[in-house]
Amino acid sequence: MKNTDFPKLKDNNPFKEKCEAAEESLNTGHELESIMIMGITLEKLTTELIRYSNIYMDSYSSQHDKIKQLRYTNRISYNLSQKFHKAKNIRNDISHGNKEDYSTYAPLMRSYFLEIMAWYDKNYITETINPKIKLKQYLNKVCNDSTITKIIEQEIDDEKITQNYQIIKRIKEKLINYVNNSDIDSEIKKEVKKEIYSGIIKNIPQIEEKINEITPIEIGVANIINTKNQMKYTIQSIDIHKEIKENMKNLEYNQHQNKQLQKDFNDYGLCIFTTDIVAICQNEKQSQLVKQDEITFNANKSYNNKKKEEMPSKIGVANIINTENMMKYTVQSTDIDNEIKENMESLKNNNHINKQLQEDFNKYGLSSFKTEIVTKCQNEKQSQLVKQDEITFNAKKSYNTNNIM
Q1: Is 0.85 topped by the overall pTM?
Q2: What is the spatial distance between Cα 326 and Cα 142, in angstroms, rounded to a whole number?
Q3: What phi and psi, each to the nearest 5 degrees, are found at residue 342?
């Protein structure tokens, strides 16, 4: 494949050397080598964009998850995210030996690679750093909070911020607003804001850490809210602040016990979810009652109400029926199917406890008997009452009341 026409990237683009290596491999007919160079380069670019965007992801996060987070935080467009995914898939398939026609997939990989690198070169690399880029670079040095960074970058683009000291001032304003909007005691707010003004606290995670340090342990109830569909997951604990933190951590690590909540979290992303303290309670019993009331109130909008498939009840009442004379033998058990089976086995073995039933079974044979479930019950006591009613109803046609001793 000759003359691949890779874009002439800017000299200070850190990926320029790898792009040139991929171009050379294509020009010399080494399609597999070129595909692997492009794939590895895009993986490194994804990591670089995550780092630049101050998105927290642990070291075990896959490229797939990183691309999803870049899309959720609007760092890349939907169309570009699809190019990233398709290029990743080509590289993975070839690495695992699923595709061997390199000459077919090399130009496809090249088209995705060209578009992504051209986008990166245009949006992140400049020949001479203009004032806005300088301010954004400074912003990323003094603030590692992606939420605040995104807001202030927009203010830089809108030229509301033109100097470094204004960035520091705006960061503090955003942090102060965050504290003011937090559902915490006024004395705690005062202490946290003091550390923001002094420069000790520089981002929202540090605010949360400070609040956790000085917030008293409180019994309470809270909701984890999906702002996309208004679904709520209600939790209750003797340390509600710690419980909220642990639930959110489990969601981030894809380990939450509520499968529907975890699925929505994976689909929508962290930015769609928020938490809300419903009530602070005097004791654990009160918090349990408040939790149940909250779940009932939310009704179909509660993740807690996602029903599990219930196992059918085994408790029940049944009849063994002689079709020759319509006599019935009524049985009851916590495992009614097994009870029917055991009774029929006893009849076949000529050792049934009911002598009259056994005599008729021996006389008429198996083909003259059938079984029927009268009803399934919620508990054993109910099944005992139903059995007695059935025997009474059958009266003279019941083997239970006409047994020969």
Answers
A1: no
A2: 90
A3: -65, -40
